[in-house]
């Protein structure tokens, strides 16, 4: 018997989150660790579960999440988008509500590449007149 599950991919900067949504008791695992342990000390981490709160489905699903790349903050945003996409796969009626709340919008900002002759992407060496 196959386990009923729903999948969503979330991205932010270079972070990629794969979210598997399964009916359950609200257990959340990130890269094999409990959610609280993986994001310990990060205040923003609770916002990753906003899509579930928004549609009043908190505690009804077990989440199995694998996330890699970028930093913890970008990973939280990637997870948020992944959860929203998985919820849409679970029930297409939720799309309008999640889209209006901004959970399905991809933040396309990426790091600009460093150019030669510059310290960073745009920061130039100090100008010397003499």
From TrEMBL:
GO annotation, biological process: translation
Statement: the UniProt record of this protein carries the keyword Phosphoprotein: no
InterPro entries reported for this sequence: Ribosomal_Su5_D2-typ_SF, Ribosomal_uS9, Ribosomal_uS9_bac/plastid, Ribsml_uS5_D2-typ_fold_subgr
Keyword tags: Ribonucleoprotein, Ribosomal protein, RNA-binding, rRNA-binding, tRNA-binding
GO cellular component: cytosolic small ribosomal subunit
Gene Ontology molecular function: any one: tRNA binding
Quaternary assembly: Part of the 30S ribosomal subunit. Contacts proteins S7 and S10.
Family per record: Belongs to the universal ribosomal protein uS9 family.
Task of the protein: Part of the top of the head of the 30S subunit. The C-terminal region penetrates the head emerging in the P-site where it contacts tRNA.
NCBIfam families: PRK00132.1
Name of protein: Small ribosomal subunit protein uS9
Organism: Oceanithermus profundus (strain DSM 14977 / NBRC 100410 / VKM B-2274 / 506)
Gene: rpsI
């Amino acid at each position: 018997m196959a386990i009923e599950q729903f999948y969503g991919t979330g991205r932010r900067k270079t972070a990629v989150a794969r979210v598997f949504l399964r009916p359950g008791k609200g257990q959340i695992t990130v890269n094999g660790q409990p959610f609280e342990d993986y994001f310990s000390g990060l205040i923003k981490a609770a916002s990753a579960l906003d899509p579930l709160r928004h549609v009043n489905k908190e505690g009804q699903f077990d989440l199995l999440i694998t996330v890699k790349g970028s930093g913890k903050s970008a990973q939280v945003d990637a997870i948020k988008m992944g959860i929203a996409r998985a919820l849409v796969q679970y029930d297409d009626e939720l799309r309008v509500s999640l889209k209006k709340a901004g959970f399905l919008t991809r933040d396309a900002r990426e790091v600009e590449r460093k150019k030669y002759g510059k310290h960073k992407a745009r920061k130039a060496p100090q100008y010397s007149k003499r």
